[in-house]
Every structure is written in structure tokens, then in C-alpha cells.
Amino acid sequence: MSHSPGRRGFLFGGAVIGGGLLASACTSNASNDEKSASAPALAGTDNEKPGQKVVIGFSAPAADHGWIAAIAKNAEATAKLYSDVEFKAVEPTNDINQQIAAVESLIDAKVGALVILPNDGQQLNQVARKASDAGIPVVNLDRVFPDKLSYRTWIGGDNYGMGVAAGHYIGAKLKEKGVAEPVILEIQGIATLPLTQDRSKGFADALKTYGFTVTAQQDAQFTVQSGTDVATNLLQAHKKIDALWNHDDDQGVGVLAAIKEANRNEFFMVGGAGSANAMREIKSGSSVLEATVTYSPSMASSAVKLARLIAQGKGMSDLVEQGVPQSITLASETITKDNVDTYLPLGFES
Amino acid sequence: MPDIKDPLLVMSGIVKQFPGVRALDGVDLEVLPGEVHCLLGQNGAGKSTLIKTLAGAHQPDEGVIRLGGEEVRLTGPVAAIRLGISTIYQELDLVDGLSVADNVFLGHEKARFGFTRTADAHRAASELLTRLGHGEIPPATEVGSLPPAGKQVVSMARALSHEARLIVMDEPSAALAHDEVDNLFRTIRELTAQGVAVVYISHRLEEIREIGDRVTVLKDGRTVAVGLPADTPTREIVSLMTGRDVEHVFPARPAPGSHEGRAEVLRVEGLSVPGVFQDVSFAVREGEIVGLAGLVGSGRSEILEAVYGARRASGKVLVDGEPVRGVSSAVRLGLGLAPEERKAQALLLEESVARNITLGGLARYARLGWLDRGRELADAGRQIDELGIRPADPGRPVRTLSGGNQQKAVLARWLVDRRRLLLLDEPTRGVDVGARADLYAVIRRLADEGIGVLLVSSEIPEVLGLADRVLVIRDGRNVHESDARELDEHRVLDLIMEGSAL
Amino acid sequence: MNDTRTPPVGKLPAPVRTLRDRGGLRHLGLVGALVLLCLVGLVTRPDTFATSSNLVTLLALASTIGVITVGMTFVIIGGGIDLSVGSVMALASVWATTVATQSYGPWVMALCALLVGTATGAVSGLLISYGRMVPFIATLAMMAAASGLAQRLSDRRTQLVAPENDAIVALSTTRVLGLPILVYIFAAVVAAGWVLLNRTTFGRRTYAVGGNAEAARLAGIDVRKHTVLLYALSGLCCGIAALIIMARTTAGSSTHGYLYELDAIAAVIIGGTLLTGGRGTIIGSILGLLVFTVITNLFILNGLDTSDQLIAKGLIIVAAVLLQQRTANTG
């Protein structure tokens, strides 16, 4: 994949800032949590210092969506921060066979560590296992391999948690307003994906604690245009809406366009993923979009960092353990007008 | 072996009703084993429906079919083939991409457990082809590479492979040149000598006289004559078909030499297409009909296409002194072509008669691309009237018209907008006898109005009867040019065959 | 001389008024289906279905594919097919919303969308007529290439229409006599398409080229030039559709128009246009498209699942085509 130089510079700049901030955010969060705990001997914070040279292989699906595009860019930008890391990304593809072949080529090239976001965890499990068996540590990004022997560390978002965060925001807010039997709509991404089903389940479960249910649910294929079309029809179907959760900020551009076109503002909307557009919209304060729950592509930056640490035999300096944990689930955070400024630099351009 | 007098096939009182049309209204047909039985009738007389009934494609509403004395029901094409009736349609239903042997055994392949047995098939196909007197056709050849005559032989071999007792041939000679027809007749005789009966359909009376044993004439869905001897005089047969006497088939011509001094509409000089025809030169004057006679493949149709700019050629083509550069410029200069394959090359079959007529001169009805449909319709109506296109309904899809009327619609296309020169390629192919006379009259009338006509026909009498002047083309060269009245059929045949016959 | 002609003059049936306008009857099946669907809407959602705002919604939803369908109708009647419409629309929307284009203002953006669409269409046409490629293959190639170019240009991001170019978005948000401007654009394209097809030499030649290309050529029509024009027209329609989708979604994106080619082709075919060319109508295509739009609308109004929508769509296509064959055979 090649880009025009100008844009590349601009985007990478953004991503670098994103990656850097994420790192500091994580650290600061972690140290906050640990403040009250009795501090064991500090592991030292020389993790960022150049260590032994590491070749990190990277394979991800081809970007047909802002989130995936951000994943690839974040990974590359983070790798660039380290003089001891050589980043080897293979051609992104949406074809399972090609991705298997690509990972195999990385294994053959004897890279020091692998970061893989598989098109499908089940189908790429075998090749990931092959890498692990060959002694290459695999950092599994987001879509999980079913076989724990296939990866050293998994880092990913929490789809169920995303739904829960959105459900809590909406539930609490409606409870506070004292709305009885509210009309709550949900616009999903691709309905057939397990991640969508997890999100919806989390959403429904959280709403249940408030005694609410989802009134209507439609899927919008993760595309802007489908977002517009589905939202246009949904707005027709429901003359009065109290709250709307849209799973994905990319398709949210279209959803917001439809709301604007229909000239509706009697409800509030929550987004998903955390794109820069959505954050700017939240920040403006004049939009129906009041909040978004994160599923941040900054996880790719973290994955590269983890791969480096694993390859260099280091642990995470804020933890007591000498090695990197086996599994890291990122919490889905809720971005509102109050905290949007903190998150804005992390937002990905959809 | 049944007695030779026992008929192989007897159809009696066959009735077939379609919505709005009674296509067959009590047809009788009797075919003896080993005879060539000709079926005659104008377009629309019911010939096609009758053969489709025989092929099992249509079920008759009334009537009885007996085969070898037993009453049979032809419930479908497969049933008909099983009973030994094979039909060879005008558009041969062969698969061009398969070999001769594959085509012969299509649908009943020589196979064991689903694996084709090529060697067996080739041997068997060879035997069948030899029985037809064409052992020289290699069974492994791709059918697409064979000439029309060869394809016909393959179709017949296929019929034989089904052990056909009766073979129906729908206008088998239509796509063939003169010498190929002789070959076809030889093949048919091979068949009949083996006791196979042939039902033969053709518009060409000469052929019927040559190959036929007996004739059945249809008119308006009824049998008007059963089992006439094939040497019944033409006039009698034509009058049976049309219900009237045909006296002068060809319209009167102006006196020889009367075109001299009139302006040259077309001048062709040194026209050549490498490998097809070489160095052809001639001229057509206003009001003159010039005929090109020659065998299929002699280059006559290609000369027409080159004149029309539809085929790249070297040499000069001048219309009123202006050179022709491609079809568009030919049309602009006043040329009009009625191509050989009417349906494939000239007509929009689904479209109305009127739209077909105005297609060539659309720009005439347009202002800035906007069509004046009233004027268009009026012009089309006038042409329908003048040429006597029947039915006289401009809105009717052209596919529903008979061959002769379709041909008139093609001619009409070039008449709405006055043409200088018409190029007619086989204008009477597939047109029945009555309608032919009508077409000849129209063509002559157009010439009398000052239009030049360049005519190509496989039927020598047609060229001799209609044209003022005749060019004989052999192997891509103009070998003779003279007034049509100075020639007769024999002389032309001599000129055409000379050299190639030796 | 033998004359079989019935006496001329006067015998001709009174001027036949219509050449081929059996239109009303031909579309009976589709109109019936549409009426049926509307009845279903009235029964299941009496409160919302027949409201004026829902009707506006239906028209706005239909407008994007609707405009593309008009172009597709021409191409298919002309004996071709255009698989590239979805990605050409995406490319046009992306090109028109790049930072560079946006800096010139809304008029240039609109012009850019139309030009990109027309030019890509013309390229397909040139490949088909002068490059002698099969339309299916040439436009398949264009579909892939345009989609790739759209992704490259946008870097796979969703490109928002900048606030200063809100005039584009206004096509969707501004209403004239209760209807968004883009509905008028849609109507204008349909009307222009109808006139072009039925009242001009271009339309007549389109039928001729699709019905029998050889006959058209020998009748003096420049078939190759006409083919290029047909695909350019389809491309132009994609450009207009890009403008509409930019207005509706406030963004240009390489994901726009995903599978639009299939919806547009399906609408044209159930509208009675022969896939082999030579026959068809704009009205039929639009009716076919409305059937699809109403189905989607009904399903969402009633809170039904997308998968069921797809099943219904498939069944409708089959039913419509079967019905059409029956009426075509008897008519």
C-alpha cells in the first residue's frame, strides 16, 4: 500500500501523537490505581530505552473502514518510535488464504515477533499456531484465536463492555429524566458478526438493569450510506425517540446526516468506537450525539509495544510480573462533552 | 419389410388451433417409404406448424397420425425421435464448438458409465457419413469449421444415428450454393435408396421437380392437393398455392440500351479485397438494374458489402462522383443495402414495422435530436401503402410479418428518404412465389423512378429475368458482362462453372 | 404484370396512434405489486406509512439508485451492462470531497462529480466499442479500478463535506414545496431520461443498437460512437447520484454505492427491460426500484430483520420476472 507523501506525513503525525498519548494514558491510569496499593520494588521504567534489535511482523485485513485503516497506521507509527524495532508489514488483504500465506512468509523470514489482526480467528488459528510452535511470539490483536497455544498475548477491545457502557449511559440518563417506557433504538454494524452480537447483548443487559428494553434494531453494514438509509427509515418508523445507540462512528456520519435531514432533535444519541468526527460532534454540544463508547484502534500501538517487550524479554514496568500478561482486555470508555478533550487526540479519522 | 405400397406415415384431419389463429385446419399427408415427398405452400400456409407437429413440438388438437400402420402420439421431440422421425430445421441445431462425432451423437452419446467413448463414436460417425456418401468428412473436425453443406450432412447423419425412418427437411437448400445443392440431392438419394422417407420443404420449384417424387400442397392450413406427381406443371402448382395463375413473373423491362446516356450513379474501379475478390470494375446508371450472378463464395455478396463501405477494400467506389468512406458516408451519399440475412442484418424483429422503416433516415425526422413522430408515422404509412406491406399496420412487430413483407419493410427503409442506389442481396430468399412477383414489380418500379439497383441472387433465372445488365462473378473476378437478354440460364451456368468444373 | 396488392389508399387502418406504447398494460404487474405493498403498509403501520413525511423519505431513499437506474436502463436497452456504477459513484463522491476539490467551493465539487462520472463511463465505453471488450468484463474491470482509485484517493477515510460547502448538503436539507431538492433532481433525471429514450434519435438508436447491432450498423448508425455515448451517459448518472449521496450522507466515501450495480440491474430487469437489449422502459425501471425501496421501508417500519428483507427481495425478483414472461408471451 502506498500513499501520497503529503497525506502520509499528516496522518502519521496524528497517529504518532495518538500512540504516544495512549501510552502515557495507560501508564497514568495504572499508576493511579496502584497509588493506594503497597508498592513493590519498582521494575524500573527503562522499557522505552533501546534494547536488542527486534523485527516485528504485522498482518491485518485490508482497510475498508476507518477503524481498520487506523489500526494499520497506528501500528506502523508506533514501531517508528523505536530505533530498535524493524517493522515488517505484509500486504493487507481481506482474503483468508492470502493472509495465511502472508503470515507464513513472515514466519519464513524469522521475524522476532508477530502482531496479527486476523480476518477470522478460527481460520487463521493454524498458521498462528505454526508461528508459535516455531518459537515466534504472537501478539493477537482484537479478533481472538481459539487456541491459546497459538498466541503469547491477546490484546483487544471489549465488545460486550461497549454495549454495557452505552446501555449504562442511556439507562442512567433516561432514569434521571424520569422517562417511562422510553423508545430506545439501536443501529448495529454487520448483524451477522459475533462482535455485533456481543455489543447488542451488552447493551440489552445493561438496559435491563434499568428496566428498559430496545424498541427497534436494524443493521447498517458499517457504511456511511447504509447508515443514512437505515436511519432515514427508522426515523420514519418512530415519530418520537428517546435515545439511539449507533454501534459505529463511521456509519454514524450517515446516521447523523439522516437525523439532520429529518430535522429531529427530541432524542440523544450515543456512538461507538470513538472517531475524531464523533468527538468533534460531541464537543460542539449542539449535536444529538452526546457520547460515544470507545473501541479504540490505539490498541494496535499497544500491540506493537507489547510485541517489542515480549521479544526483548521484558515485562510491563507497571506490573510486578517479569513478563507481559497473557491477555489484556481494554475497557470501553465513555466519551462525553466533559472528557472529550482528553480523548480527542486519540480519535481516529474515519 | 412392409409392402412398398403401404404408406409409412399417414396424417389425417390434423387441426391445430392457436390463440386467434387456426394454423392447421384439417391437413392430410401421406408419405411412402423411400420417397421424397415435397411439401409446398406459401408462408403462413401451415408448413411450419405441420412439421413441428411431426417433430412432436406441437400436439394436434384433432386428427390422427399413423406410423407404419399404427396410430402414434408424438408427445414431445424425444417421442418423435424414438419413433424414427427426425427433423432438420433451417437453422441447423448443431453445436459449433463440438466435433462432428459429438454432434452426431449429441443426447445419446456413445458412453460407458458416463465416460464418452471417443473412438467408438468416431467410428460410428464415419460409418453414418459414408452411408450418406460423405465419408470424406473427418469425424473429429469441429462443426463450426464446416461449410453450410457439410453441416447439413452432419445433421442428416445425426438423424440416421437415431435410426430415422422419416427425415423432415425444412428448406435445406436455402443456405446452399448451386453445386452444393446437387450434392445435397445425391445425399438425399442415398437416404431414400435405403428406404428412408424424406419430407422436403422448399420454395424452389425447380428443385422439387428434380428431387421430389410426389408433392402435397398446403394453403391456409388446409391440404389443397395430395400426392401430386412432382412433374406437375409449375403454373398448376403455383395456382394451387396462390389460388390464382401466375403468368408473367417478371415485370417488363425497358428496351436494351435505353439506359445509355443516363448519369452514372455508381462507379466501381479496381475494387479488391485480398483473398475474396480482385479488380472488379463496373458502373450502374440511373434507373438501371444490374445483376451479379455467381456461386455462393464467388465474392458477390462481399462486393456488395465493399460498395456499401461495410468491408475494407482497395480500389475506388464513387457515388455520383463522391468516394464512399464507410457505411455512414455511403448512407449519406444515397446508398441503401438490403442485406442477405434479413433477420440478422436488417431488422429489429421486436420493433414495429414503422420503426424499422424509418431507422435508416431517422435524422430526417429530427430537429436537434428531437423526433417528429407524427411525420415519421405518416411517412411509414405511405411506404406501407406504396409497397403494399400486409398487414398494413405500422405498429405491428415486424417479426409477425411474412418473409416477403419483411423484405418490403427493408426496402421501404431506403425509400422514405430518396436513395440513389439500392444494393439488394438475395432479396427473395425465403419469400414465397406469389410474393416474389410482387417484390419484382416493386424493384422494377423503383428503377423506373430513376433509382439504380445492384442485385445479387443465387437464382440465375431471377437475375436474368429482373436485371437489365448482368455481371458474372467467378472466383472473385468479373468474367463476363452483358445485357441480360443476351444470356440464358445455360450460358450463365457455363460461365459460372467454367474452369471450376474441370 | 401480376399485382397481388390489395387496392391501395384508403384501406390503411386509421392512423395508428401508438407505435409501442402498450406501456400501461405492460407495467400492470409491477403497479399491482406496488399497490399490494402499499396496502400492506397501510394495514401494518396505518399511523406512519401513508404520511407525507414517509413518502418524502421513500423518494429521497430511491433517488440515489434511481438516478443510476436511469443510466443503467439506457445501457441495458443498448445491449450492454454496466457493473461499475456503484464504484464509479463512490469514486465521484470521493474525488469531489478531497481537500483540494473542496477548496474550490460547492459548484466545482458538483462539476467534479459529474465530470469524473462521465469520464469513467466514457472510458468503459471506449474499451467496449473500440477495444472490443465484452461489456461485462470491461465494466467489471472498471468496477475494480474505480473502487481502488476511490480508496487510494480517500485513504479509505470518510471525507466529510466541509461546513463552507454546505450548499451540497442543502440539496438534502432544503425543502421546496415540502420536498428536498434532491427529489427534484431525481424527477428531472427521470423525465429527461424518458424524453431522451422516447422522443429523440438518440433513444431510437439505443433501441436499434441493442435490438440488432448489425442491422443498426448497416442502416448507417455509428454503433461504436453510440456505445461510447451510452456508457458516458451511465457515468454521468453516477456522477449525479454521487452528488445526491454526498448531500444525504454529508460525506464522500469509497464504501458508497456498495452493490448498487446489482440493485440497479435488478430494478431494470424487473421493470421489463430485456437483459439482451432492444426492449425496455424507464418507467418500468423506476417502478421496479420503488418496489425495492418500499419493501425496505416496510420492513424497517415494522421492525423486521435485514435477512428477511433479502429473502423478500429475491422472491420479488423471481416473481416479477415470471409474471413478465407470462404477459410478454400473451401480449
How would you portray this structure in words?
The complex is a heterotrimer of chains A (350), B (502) and C (331). With 350 residues, chain A is of the alpha/beta class. Chain A has 11 helices and 12 strands. In chain A, the strands form 2 sheets. Chain A has a 6-stranded parallel β-sheet with strand order 2-1-3-4-5-11, sandwiched between helices. Chain B is an alpha/beta fold and 502 residues long. A 6-stranded mixed β-sheet of chain B has the order 6-9-10-3-11-12, with helices on both faces. In chain B, strands 18-21-22-15-23-24 form a 6-stranded mixed β-sheet, with helices on both faces. In chain B, strand 13 and strand 14 form a beta hairpin. Chain C is mainly α and 331 residues long. Chain C has one domain: ABC transporter involved in vitamin B12 uptake, BtuC (Orthogonal Bundle). In chain C, helix 2 (28-44) packs parallel to helix 14, helix 3 (52-77) packs antiparallel against helix 12 (223-249) and helix 13 (260-270) packs across helix 14 (282-301). The interface between B and C is large, with 56 and 38 residues.
Which structural traits does this protein have?
heterotrimer, B: 502 residues, alpha/beta, Rossmann fold, 3 domains, six-stranded mixed sheet, 33% helix, 26% strand, C: 331 residues, mainly alpha, ABC transporter involved in vitamin B12 uptake, BtuC, two-stranded antiparallel ribbon, two-stranded antiparallel sheet, 15 helices, 4 strands, globular, disordered N terminus
What's the arrangement of secondary structure elements?
The complex is a heterotrimer of chains A (350), B (502) and C (331).
Chain A: H1 5-34, E1 54-59, H2 66-80, E2 85-89, H3 96-108, E3 113-116, H4 121-133, E4 138-141, E5 153-156, H5 159-177, E6 184-188, H6 194-208, E7 216-219, H7 224-237, E8 243-246, H8 249-262, E9 268-273, H9 276-284, E10 289-294, H10 299-311, E11 327-329, E12 334-335, H11 340-343
Helix pairs in contact in A: 1-2, 2-10, 3-4, 5-6, 7-8
Chain B: E1 9-18, E2 21-31, E3 36-40, H1 47-54, E4 62-67, E5 70-71, H2 77-82, E6 85-88, H3 100-104, E7 111-112, E8 115-116, H4 118-131, H5 148-161, E9 166-170, H6 178-193, E10 197-201, H7 205-211, E11 214-219, E12 222-229, H8 234-242, E13 264-273, E14 277-285, E15 289-293, H9 300-307, E16 314-319, E17 322-323, H10 326-333, E18 335-338, H11 342-346, H12 353-358, E19 366-367, E20 370-371, H13 373-387, H14 403-413, E21 421-425, H15 433-448, E22 452-456, H16 460-466, E23 469-474, E24 477-483, H17 489-497
Chain C: H1 23-26, H2 28-44, H3 52-77, H4 85-96, H5 99-102, H6 106-129, H7 135-154, E1 159-160, H8 166-173, E2 175-176, E3 179-180, H9 181-199, H10 201-211, H11 213-218, H12 223-249, E4 251-252, H13 260-270, H14 282-301, H15 306-330
Antiparallel strand pairs in C: 1-4, 2-3
Helix pairs in contact in C: 2-14, 3-9, 3-10, 3-12, 3-13, 3-14, 4-6, 4-7, 4-12, 6-7, 6-12, 8-12, 9-10, 10-12, 13-14, 13-15, 14-15
